[in-house]
Amino acid sequence: MSTDIEKFKAGSPMASTLRMDRMPHIWCPGCGIGSEVNSFAEAVKRSGIDPKKLVVVSGIGCTGRVAGYVNFDSIHTTHGRAIPVATGVKLANPELTVVVFSGEGDLAGIGGNHLIHAARRNMDLVVICNNNFTYGMTGGQVTPTTPGSAIASTTPYGNYEYPFSLPFLMDASGATYIARWTSLHSRNVTQSIEEALLRKGFSFIEIISPCPTLYLRRNRLGDGVDQLQNYQDNSILKHGCDTRETGIDYQGKIVVGKFVEKNKPSYLEAVDKCCVKLVGDDYQLYGKTIPEREAEEKAEKERIAARRAAMSAETEGQGEAVSAKPRKASTPKAAVKKAPAKVAAAPKKAKKVPAKAQAKSVKKAATKAKPVKKAATKVAAKASAKKATPKTPAKAAKKIVPKATVKTKHVAKAAPKKTRK
Ligand SMILES: Cc1ncc(C[n+]2csc(CCOP(=O)(O)OP(=O)(O)O)c2C)c(N)n1
Ligand code: SF4
Ligand SMILES: [Mg+2]
Questions:
Q1: Could you tell me if residue 251 is inside a domain?
Q2: CB–CB of 83/115 below 8 Å?
Q3: Domain boundaries, position 75
Q4: Does residue 133's CB lie within 6 angstroms of at least one atom of ligand 1?
Q5: Angle, in degrees to the nearest 10, between helices 186-197 and 33-47
Q6: Ligand 1 near 62 CB (within 6 A)
Q7: Do the Cβ atoms of 13 and 198 come closer than 8 Å?
Q8: Is residue 67 part of a domain?
Q9: Residue nearest to atom 25 of ligand 1 (CA)
Q10: CATH number, domain at 229?
Q11: What angle is formed at CA 215 by the lines to CA 65 and CA 213, rounded to 5 degrees?
């Protein structure tokens, strides 16, 4: 029996990225953290970065346990201190890719000050925030993101505090990459993490996630699957969305997408610039001049590109061409523009047609079906060609080019249930 388990663990596709000896993990059934870790591990694989140069830092909480399950160098640090510890790691060795993976209580509650200052500095970190609207590990207290009226152990009559919208907070603080998904959007989460791993500066990825044991149970919202259904029904894809419009009401709409991607010198680049001004071209960090470090970075980029190309070829060979192929930007971009219109548009009322006339028109339509289909395809092709290069808001310094194929449905019909059962 135990040998079977060992075989199963060794045969897991995640065996190289997760510490299988630590399985089974502590997370409850239906909790979103497990799927996020899976997405993260997949993103690391796909990014092509050297796993030996990756460090994962977590604070305390259910999400904080991530650091203990990943098969990379990791630090499970004190509550709210993941970002300063990660900053220290990055400054001590700029060659490392440093990821903070923690809960919203850890990052935006007790660690809120560190979060905003790391974003302000454009510190070279990837921050993945599991937002389950609750302090999971300590029994379900209210957090800085708990939506108004939601019940928590500390707000038994409903939350009366105003919550943070984390993308808005991060935007105002200076983060240069901001995305939000739910734990339903596994592929998009992977895509965003992969992008963040390959860029400089401060990247913030929020993942809205169910905590069935505390948040859902207290609010009588069903189990994890019910909440995934809620995400499916209420997610609105809006890449490049103004982050002021990303607030979340209790069981309300959740705007998802990549909201910000812009270039500005990262903290380390700013330090370099200042030191070169003072010391001149001889300035060295850890025994290397800037041109030497740039040459190394270039070589590393080339190595990553080669590894990614080899990986896509391998995956295509395994018949997974769809996910491995370089994704086209046009589909999600078109969806970005369309999303709000789809949600806002009221369904048109059909005119009543007498039964006989209906039968006639159905027959007519059937005979014309082929040319209509062709014409529709042509129109669609034209439309998608037009939408292939939509303009992003003038605010965004860099064009947002989402690569992932987003499967979120934009549901106009069902109004979200706002009252508790
Ligand atoms: C300094 C300090 N204060 C309080 C705690 C207790 N504590 C542990 S985890 C936690 C909340 C974690 O919530 P969150 O970061 O949202 O993570 P989740 O458990 O929801 O994943 C708290 C308050 C602590 N460990 N250390
Ligand atoms: S208590 Fe909530 S957040 Fe913690 S593992 Fe369970 S479901 Fe997940
Ligand atoms: Mg939490």
A1: yes
A2: yes
A3: 1-346+367-421
A4: no
A5: 40
A6: yes
A7: no
A8: yes
A9: 79
A10: 3.40.50.970
A11: 60
Specify the 3-state DSSP secondary structure of 55.
strand
The DSSP line for 113-140 is: HHHHHHHHHT-SEEEEEEE-SSBTTTT-
Distance CA 188, CA 192 (A): 6
Number of domains, the chain: 1
Decide: 289 and 282 in contact? Cβ < 8 Å. Answer: yes
Are residues 239 and 332 in contact, defined by beta-carbon separation less than 8 angstroms? yes
Taking a 5 Å cut-off on Cβ, the residues next to ion ligand 3 are 103-105, 132, 136
Note the pLDDT tens digit of each residue in 361-385.
Answer: 434 444 444 443 444 444 444 444 4
Residue 352 is assigned to a structural domain of this protein: no
Q: Please give the share of the chain, as a percent, with pLDDT higher than 70.
A: 75
Q: Are the C-beta atoms of residues 199 and 177 closer than 8 Å to each other? A: yes
Interatomic CA distance for residues 141 and 206, integer angstroms: 20
**pLDDT-derived band at 87, boundaries 50, 70, 90:** very high
Any ligand 2 atom below 6 A from CB of 131: no
The alpha carbon of 70 and the centre of ligand 3 are apart by a number of angstroms equal to 19
Taking the centre of ligand 1 as the mean of its atom positions, its distance from the CA of residue 76, in whole angstroms, is 12
Measured from the CA of 102, which atom of ligand 1 is nearest?
15
Q: What is the mean predicted confidence (pLDDT) over 78-97? A: 97
Q: Is the CB–ligand 2 distance for residue 28 below 6 Å?
A: yes
361: in domain:
no
Return the structure tokens found at 323.
């996910």
